[in-house]
Amino acid sequence: MTDPVLSISHAHLSLDGNAGRVDILHDISLEVASGETLGLVGPSGSGKSSLLMLMGGLEQATSGTITALGQDLTAMNEDQLALFRRDHMGVVFQSFHLIPTMTALENVATPLELAGAKDAFARAAAELEAVGLGNRMDHYPNQMSGGEQQRVALARASAPRPKILLADEPTGNLDETNGAAIINLLFDLRDRHGATLILVTHANELAARCDRVIRLRDGRIDSPVAKAAE
Ligand SMILES: Nc1ncnc2c1ncn2[C@@H]1O[C@H](COP(=O)(O)OP(=O)(O)OP(=O)(O)O)[C@@H](O)[C@H]1O
Ligand SMILES: [Mg+2]
To answer: Is 176 among the domain residues?
Structure first.
């Protein structure tokens, strides 16, 4: 493999909750190549979202190393991680994390403005059109359905054309038509802009389009999943 875009070596994650210490991820090692699409599957609670958070530097590994675009995320502080994400990564959270006091348009325009784009609002409007939300630009998150919020979150993450896009169940709240449109949008980001995609999904049709699928079970990599059609 040429230099991987993302490399995880012997990562462990434990979190201290009120019920004591919980071991969430155990000895995770994997590499993702440039332009690859990796699917993460596994039962609820198996650690998919937690692994995505580690990959985005949003959760600190208890031990092990995580390297993205040649940079060691485990050696960065919060500010450095925030800058790294701004410049290189898009993240779509399972619970969207839209800014409640901003309209859909403002939510999508903000990362573009932070990246210094002069036409941030025009580009944000085009991104919202692309996810079928041209008629919801001035709505606040609490005035939108779950699936609409999910599409705003995806537009926001993909608008700056990140090299790495991490998305947690990006079609989880969508009907078939909107789900298919979002899948096309994701793969367009890969095909036209060379993005590396890491997608958590329960949807077979999305997993089937990934180049490779990894299954988690109880916080461990269970097995690479053989692709059904091959
Ligand atoms: N902050 C936390 N403190 C303690 N335990 C946590 C915390 N966050 C997650 N967990 C536990 O870690 C495990 C993995 O959670 P995670 O959210 O990664 O699962 P998941 O595979 O994404 O599940 P789902 O498909 O339901 O989204 C779960 O058992 C969860 O209860
Ligand atoms: Mg999850």
So the answer is: yes
